[in-house]
Amino acid sequence: MTQHMTQAVPANAGQPLPLAEGVQGIVADWSSDQRAFKNVPWGKAMMWIFLLSDTFIFSSFLISYMTVRMSTTVPWPNPSEVFALTLFGKHIPLILIAIMTFVLISSSGTMAMAVKFGYEKNRKMSFILLLITAALGATFVGMQAFEWSKLIAEGVRPWGNPMGAAQFGSAFFMITGFHGTHVSIGVIFLIIVAVKVIRGDLDHQRPGFLTGRKGNYEIVEIMGLYWHFVDLVWVFIFALFYLW
Amino acid sequence: MAHAEGQQHPIGIYLKIWGLLFVLSTASYLVDYFHFQGYLRWFLIIVFMLLKAGLIVAVFMHMMWERLALMYAIVVPTLLLMVLLGIGALEADYTFFTRGVFFVKGLL
Predict the structure, then answer these.
(1) Hey, are the CB atoms on A37 and B69 less than 8 Å from each other?
(2) Contacts of residue A109 in chain B, CB cutoff 8 Å?
(3) pLDDT at A237 over 90
(4) Which residue in B14, B59, B95 is closest to A71 by CB distance?
(5) Residue A88 backbone phi and psi in degrees, to 5
């Protein structure tokens, strides 16, 4: 023991101590000085906490939808039929929603790769993938606008519809409207981040227009978290609203 | 210090998960297309939904590579929603029952 203590500077001097893993790691992180979330930039931790709060908002919508749907004595309109389209002379159930699902999942894939190329400082690839993500998001919103117009033309209103239970319209417009708003905001921010990437703002640590904070490739990952969350919410809406 | 914090993973894993999500989405669409009903429909819908959600959070959002302190801080509170779900279901059952009672009375 004493021999070690008298030794000169150890070989790993200046290196941070290894962090504990498992349950011990949780306790150590939460009881430590300065910050609980190690190895995570604060912007990313804050985005996660925002997404947690957003999860509660969307869950409240979906659970209240479940409550009104379970308690109505009037038959619920069949989503499979309501969202069917006739394509090339063939009547296909729920096809519009299926296409929207694939569009949004594809945008999640391109977003994940944009984050990867961003950290590799491959500006061009990251920029292109961010733009494709934004384009797919805009396509999704466009299809949603089409779906809304179609339903409104068929007489669906938040207070009633010709197909069945009145709550169908209020739940539909509330849930898909809130989700569509999230997608639209995401598209705007994707374009802003894409411009920052291609201009080299993140390489040169150029201060942001509003916040004045130094540019950094972490913002691409934080943008990605938001975008994947929008896709995640759609997974639940697709299953619980359209497939139920 | 900030340099060590980025998440970098090979592109292959993203492409594989992307493919899996496509397969799972197709599967959940087919549940409707082939008109599965009852408990089988519910089981398939929920399983595909949770698998897709898990893949997105774990890989696309990099949660599986984060430290447990963050993982638990985000995932555990969402489990509280199960309580709200239970309350909602109980309340809906009761409302449905009362509506049944009063609407039938109105007819008599």
Answers:
(1) yes
(2) 14-15, 17-18, 21
(3) yes
(4) B95
(5) 50, 40
